[in-house]
Design a protein that fits this description.
Strand order of the largest sheet: 1-2-3-4-7
Structural class: alpha/beta
Distance between the termini: 94 Å
Organism: Streptomyces griseorubens
Largest sheet: 5 strands, mixed
Helix content: 55-70%
Number of helices: 12
Protein name: Transposase
Shape: rod-shaped
Strand content: 5-15%
Order of helices and strands: HHEEEHEHEEEHHHHHHHH
Number of strands: 7
Amino acid sequence: MVSPPHEAMHCIFQHDPGLFSRVSRFLGVDIPAPVKATALPTDLTEANPVERRVDTLLRLETADQGSYLLAVEAQGKKHPDKPASWAYYTAYLWTKYRLPTALLVVCQDHATATWAQQPVSCGPPQLPTLTVQPLVAGPHNMPVITDPEEARADLVLASLAAITHAAEPDVDAILKALSTALRDAPEDVAKPLVEFTAQGLAKRPAKNLWRNLVAVDLSFYKSYLAEEVRDEVRAAVRDEVRDEVRDEVRDEVRDEVRDEVRDEVRDEVRDEVRDEVRGEVRDEARAESRAEDILLILEQRGLGISEDVRSRITHCTDPELLRHWLARAVTVPKAEEVFEDA
């Protein structure tokens, strides 16, 4: 499955065919700017069932050096079969169109770029026959454009710089410069570059920065990228509001349920409480009766009962303690001695 970065790395040359001549100076060659460019079919399939397609194919015409073909390949990682495919592409295009053919490989990491620019020959060492050595654009040679004025001078090159440096530490500064430069660009110019840059960043961390810059710096731009940010913010706010409403509703429902449950359980617990209260009242009655028995015995024995003694006996609710006092009341010489050994 073709990834967004793969598409961005070669389609940007379809968008601006003159980009190749501006990029060439960073690749160590001097390619004249085209005066005309034509997109050619990318299908290189022959009559046999093997299907071969180059990513982007352009016919560029120059004022002084005539026409030539430019095949652009986006390469995301090393692949042992690619040099043979590139050799086929260039040989086939040269044969079919009879025009000089250039091959540009665009990468996003140093390892792939180093691998891609190594010359590969199809023959034995002493007979190289056909050697493929493409021009390679990647983080090792593409400019780091962090000045908005420099980005504004060539917006497409700045976008390619961001794409090829997508995994590099400098990408944040490049994206900020590009977004600043795009503020003054017409929407029809800014729109495709915003999309190319977003595709090239794919799922890398810099994608989040680019989305935020698009949403803030390019608020006029109504792309899927800006709408995506707005949808995320809307979802976040919705979650916050939902939590607030949930708390409010929880309090309301809690009060409603509490009232409902109170009515429901009132009858259920009434019998339980009645039994509990009956037991408590029965115990209290027993305690009162036993206290009266203690006082009666003390009076019948003719012992004086002070208010303190009477109060202590009548306010006691411990059945066992009252039983102990009752037993002592039969023999103690003084009412106060009922409490001894208690």
